[in-house]
């Protein structure tokens, strides 16, 4: 199943709106299930992990929190409640990232009359995300074979030294990588003022209309429940 | 076709750059830019593809023209219509998750009709033999495959000029032979090619003109024939890598992955079946290493050399087999405690705020005196108080090697320590590795660089003497 990039972008906005308005756990669970199903259909692979994670958060909130000390509830509630609330939006971002090429994104944004600066920035950010993972893994490996905390007896000092050792190369390396990517993009005409063509761009089809209609209905229901009931 | 008329460019802030450049490149000509690191080759490439001064800001004087049209003051996308680029690390220039989209990215940016794009894509796939790679992500390819895709993208971009900035730095001999064929085909199709390179021998017969650069100036311009007829002494006198293909010294310490090796040394890999992510290698690998020796691991791109090194370092878990040190089988953590490692990308392994601090960080037994001695050998002593990340790429590479050598761990692993390095840096790296081996370390080097291998094995005694003198 293929969705138009514009629909994927609108889905992100609508799911975030739904998450901020809705207070009903059943509606939220239905939304989460529907988006997980959509992600599976679009990527062609069964994705049950996000649903499992969501189920754990719900179980913790409704069955563990009532019998836990207040301090524990206070510490964990941000993770369990707020992260859970925005999981459907995170899945929509994942849907966009995993099923959209940079040229599809640029073509769609240009058709939506977005400014070139924003289009290019988003394209570089999208390309940079996997690089960030690689940078983190490389620094972790370098630290594993380097005993940077040798001679430090205090656990606090060791933790601080490791955090500093992680941050310095990450910042420098990120800046360098982003710079290299931007330079490469410039040499490939990413800032051309024309509307980019896209050989894999699809047409707005029945699936796009169906998904959009379902998302608008869900948000409409959330607005009604919030302001009119 | 391409003309530099008395061009001077200075980067803002540093004042480095290129000076009084006069150069004319005819249509269909291939020009090689050579010289030591920091001589201005990359800056000249950036002036051609428009990255300087539009992306790397600085002051530009003089005139650069293509086909008689003045290029100074053009928007970057206007230059991109005339010049395409291939960089040292192809993966750092990819923007798409599938090869097809990557190849036609420039055309899509320029709004070419889709039918036209598909036609050009088919042509490039045919010409570069990319059928098997078309649906694969460029980020999951070997260095040679990824560089071929980068060349295909440059070819498809429909520009008259192609600039190449050290395109073979990370490639093995087979991949270089393939790249040579591609550049010849590009030249035959009328494209003008400008290459900046340290590895020179593969360009014999391709380069029509060679510009030797030093301190930001073109000191000498040779015809291709004149340049490649230079003697070995003349060439090393200019600080250049070999001009003829280098045959590897025969040594029992050169280990080719895939061949049977023994596993009886102080440090050994015993029938290791390598695994990295979802990939698992079919054949077990054995190798044996003794203290005080340098071992070079060679083999084509994609054979698992880096994974082998990572397995020895305890950064990957093998599917079968074991790593042994002093008769004991070691787990991942135990291996990490006995090895120091220099990775291909040095940005991620320098943690301190000064060069001297970097040498001492985590190296409990190293004194400031030891560190300064090593920095002296690596010609980094004058930067002792500089931030490691402010050094040039070659200097960072040397610092990473020096830091690993100062560690009191008995095993030193290096992954392509001389990729993209000039003759001077390569020689210094070879010298410091000999010193480490002389001090009893086991040095294991993954490399494609035959010049480095020869430097390591040819004159062990001479090098050792030079260091102690």
Number of helices of chain A: 9
Question: What is the mean predicted local confidence, pLDDT of chain A?
Answer: 89
- Which structural class best describes the helix and strand composition of chain B? alpha/beta
Output the number of helix runs of chain B. Answer: 18
Instruction: Compute the CA-based radius of gyration of chain B.
Output: 23 Å
Unreliable residue stretches of chain B: 461-469
Mean pLDDT of chain B: 89
Major β-sheet profile of chain B: 6 strands, mixed
Describe the structure.
The complex is a heterodimer of chains A (229) and B (469). By secondary structure, chain A is mostly helical. Chain A has two domains: 1-100 and 199-229, no CATH class; 115-198, no CATH class. Chain A has nine helices and no strands. The longest helix of chain A has 33 residues, at 155-187. Chain A is flat and about 65 Å long. With 469 residues, chain B is α/β, with parallel strands linked by helices. In chain B, 35% of the residues lie in helices and 23% in strands. In chain B, the strands form five sheets. A six-stranded mixed sheet of chain B has the order 6-7-8-3-9-10, with helices on both faces. Chain B is globular and about 70 Å long.
